[in-house]
Design goal:
single chain; 89 residues; alpha+beta; three-stranded mixed sheet; 2 helices
Amino acid sequence: MVEWFDFDDPAHDALPTYILDGNLTLLDGHTRAFVAYLGGVDSLRIQELDDSDTEELNLELYRECLDWCQEEGVTDLSNLVGRVVSHTS
């Protein structure tokens, strides 16, 4: 991810978000958002999805993941520093 992310021009596809239980929730693009955070990018484009866009998603699973994150103190990207598992081949 770091190899192809353009820190000087992070205008990639918008990150899909959804208001879940009153909170803006990132549905995909977590790695891209984290790499952007590490690179000091101030903002990324988002696309706020509506109910019709999320019909096929398991929102209950997202709620469970959000609960786990809350329990572990992961509430924003900065909380992932030192917690990310890297993939090695």
